[in-house]
Amino acid sequence: MLFIKPCTGRITSHFNLKRKHPITGKITPHWGTDFGNHNDNTIVAAQSGTIRIASHSNTGFGNYVIITHSNGWETVYAHLKSIAVKVGQKVKKGQYIGVKGTTGNSTGVHLHFEISKGRWTNSYSKHVNPVGYIDNSSIALFRGIVGPRVGNLQSKLNSIGYKLTVDNSFGPAVEKAVKDFQKKNKLTVDGGVGPATFEKLGKINIEKPSIGKSITQMAQEIIAGKHGTGHENRRKSLGISKGDYEKVREVVNQLTNVSKSVQRMADEVIAGKHGAGHAQRRKSLQVSAETYAKVRAEVNRRLR
Ligand SMILES: [Zn+2]
Questions:
Q1: What is the pLDDT of residues 166-217, one digit of tens each?
Q2: What is the CA(199)–ligand 1 centre distance, in A?
Q3: Which residues surround ligand 1, an ion (CB under 5 A)?
Q4: Cα(33) to centroid(ligand 1), Å
């Protein structure tokens, strides 16, 4: 899922697991992206969804909003001066939701923005660096960033002759390709993709990378049955390495909403470890009817 930039203003602080906190001085992970003060401090929904929280916290977030999106992901908007939405309200991508401020644990007017790939909790287990997910060429990409925007960059670079694995992860190989591109195009060679490099690369096609299938596309093809059955068979049909196939498989499982334990149980059922007959198997697995239905669906999907 891609998002739009929730406000104007440049990035003043990145997602950073080793950040020194500006107030306490302690090493405290920074779970979001901060956008600084600007003439226009309106904040919009980064993607359509439903307002789950529109509230005030005396510590931390100050006035904040959490939006739940259609795939269960959530975005957080913190330190607001004012909130313009109510709990339960449906909002469209780009809809006004409030004004940037400095309420809560904050040293100046800014928006603290978080993306959680699932329900937001203060364990932060599903947080991602928003920069990999905000579709806006004014926001630079650099080594360490993960997300679909990086996949688009990889596809774009492949379309002009580079041979990168489209895995949504900005690693050393991507950095090397970017530096080479920058050198050839007389840009500042820093290995990061900022507005100038984006402009040279041309408009990145977000929905359909020009050459090279993304991991997600391959996963969707597998689900659609385009690559037959059996892992080795599918991998050969896709013409990719074992490492890449594992990444595709992971995405297939994510897309089909199959948990690791359901996969394991399906493996066992197929291997015949739980006997024959649904009632017998469910008893042997000691799972609820609901979980057994998931195992059964997974078994059927694999044997299809
Ligand atoms: Zn922040």
A1: 999 999 999 999 999 999 999 999 999 999 999 999 855 444 333 357 788 8
A2: 28
A3: 32, 34, 112
A4: 6
Alpha carbon distance 91, 93 (integer Å) = 7
Residue of 74, 1, 76, 68 lying closest to 32 (CA atoms): 76
Cα(139) to centroid of ligand 1, in Å?
Answer: 16
Sequence-ordered alpha helix ranges (H) in 206-241? 215-223, 231-238
Q: In 10 A of CB 138, how many CB atoms?
A: 12
Share of residues in the chain with pLDDT > 90 (%): 62
Q: pLDDT for 31-86, tens place per residue?
A: 999 999 999 999 999 999 999 999 999 879 999 999 999 999 999 999 999 999 99
Cα(116)–Cα(74) distance, rounded to whole angstroms?
Answer: 5
State how far the Cα of 291 lies from the Cα of 225, in Å rounded to an integer: 24
User: Torsion over CA of 12, 18, 19 and 25, rounded to 10 degrees?
Assistant: 180
Q: From the CA of 112, how far away is ligand 1's center (Å)?
A: 4
CA of 29 to the centre of ligand 1 (A): 10
User: For the chain, what percentages of helix, strand and coil (3-state, to nearest 5) are there?
Assistant: 35, 20, 45
What superfamily in CATH does domain 11-132 come from? Glucose Permease (Domain IIA) (2.70.70.10)
Distances, alpha carbon 125 to alpha carbons 19, 31, 121, 196, in Å:
17, 10, 8, 34
Please, which residues have CB within 8 angstroms of residue 139's CB and are 6 or more apart in sequence?
A: 5, 11, 131
